[in-house]
Every structure is written in structure tokens, then in C-alpha cells.
Amino acid sequence: MAAVAGAVRIAAAGDIHCGTEERDRSRVEAAFAGLERGIDLILLAGDLTTCGDPAEAQVLAEICERVPAPVLAVLGNHDWHANRTHEVVATLTRGGIHMLERSSSTIDVRGATVGIVGLKGFVGGFPDYTLPDFGEPLLRQLYAETTLDVEALDRELEEIADADLRIVLMHYSPTTTTLEGEPRAIWAFLGSDRLARPIGAHRPDLVLHGHAHAGAFEGFIGAVPVYNVAVPVTGRDFWIFELPGPAEEPKVEQQIVEKPAV
What we know:
The chain is α/β, with parallel strands linked by helices and 262 residues long. The protein has helices at residues 22-33, 54-64, 77-80, 85-94, 137-159, 196-202, 231-234; strands spanning 8-13, 41-45, 71-74, 97-99, 103-109, 112-119, 125-126, 129-130, 165-170, 206-209, 218-221, 224-228, 236-243, 251-252, 257-258. The strands form 3 sheets. Strands 1, 2, 3, 4, 13, 14 and 15 form a 7-stranded mixed beta sheet that branches.
């Protein structure tokens, strides 16, 4: 791998739940405005809107139009609620947000190539709480949907294999290590360890997700660091990560944006 000239600073957040009320707009505007200079990438780990209304997406799009750093994002379950994702994605894209879904993008940052694989992910569960590929067609369809995510994650990680830094951005969790604090009875609906298999095989530098509001911030898949950046977990508008180079471990900086008082 080529040497990285300078550290790459990433601001990450999940579950910002943008709405159309003025207080929602003000909250999200303040979060983005509070980011200091020197942020290279902004990564949003799904649940960008409250209920998947294109009008909610428009609020975020208008805010991100004024953001100088590239913004990349994936959808979450809330963004699917109104079943208008085509409109939501189109709206966010017009605002300059690079939407990823079972896809990847490579960006040059400070002399380094940063490859980001993005997907929503899906449910399926973890050992002792696993949904099987058996039974009613609807249940097997759910299993098949997660299979598509696993296949895409493997394919796109291979696509960015030559990048200096490799990041996975998703909404659902690929590991139980960031679910501790959530009731175990609902773990099957918070993610799937099937998503961990391509991560463990390709060993990206960093994995980010959201969704588990009562989960843990820091986890792992083997030696790969995994972080739950859902705002209810971090207690911050954004958490700042610094990746100094491919030969070093990613570092979590002190957060720099305080969550505004409600």
C-alpha cells in the first residue's frame, strides 16, 4: 500500500432523523455548522429522515448543499417507512449527497485513496437469535434480502481492495459487540452476523453503523474496529475519526461538536 500524506479526518453520525419542523431544521443546521475546518469526509449511517418523506429529505439536502466536505450516506429503516426511497434518494442527490446502496466510491483525500462501501444492511440475527432460511416464503424472502447485502458487501470490498483506506458504512449492525445494552430479544431485528463474514475476510480499516439507539459505541469483528455512531449512542452531533495511514490503527479523536440542548 502507498503511504498516506497526512491524516484523514472523518465526521460520522447515524440516526439524525431530519424532520420538517423548524426545530428539526435548526438542530441539523447547527450540527453541520459546528463542524470545524479540516474535516475531509462526512459519513451518515442511515435514518437520515424521520419517516422517509421526501420533504424531510429536502431539509437535509438544503443543509448539505452548503457543506464544503464530501457527504456520503446510506439509507436506514426510517428512510424506507413511506416507501418513497426513489424520491428520497433523488432529493438527497440533488443536494450533493453521494448515496450508496450496495455500492462503493473512491475519493482522493490528502494524497490517499479512501474507498467507502455503503449499504443499508438488514436483519437476520446473531447466534442463538438467528432467522433461518426455512419456512414460509415471506421469511425466506427476508433471508434472501440479507444474502444480497452480504454478496454486495463482499463484491464492493473487493472493488476497493487497492484503496489506501477502506471504510464500510451501513445502518444495521454486523456484530453483537455494538448491541450490548439493547434487549437481546430484539437483536435479530438490529442486524445480522452474516454481514460480518465479508468484513472479516477483507479486513477494512473501519466499519460504521447506526440503528441501535441503546447499543454500545465501540465494537469489533476480529481485528476490525466497528463503531455505532447513532447520535443517541454517541451523545454528539458528529463523532470525529482520524485515520493516519494504512499502516496504523484508526484513532477516535475527541468529539468536537456538542449536541445542542433540547
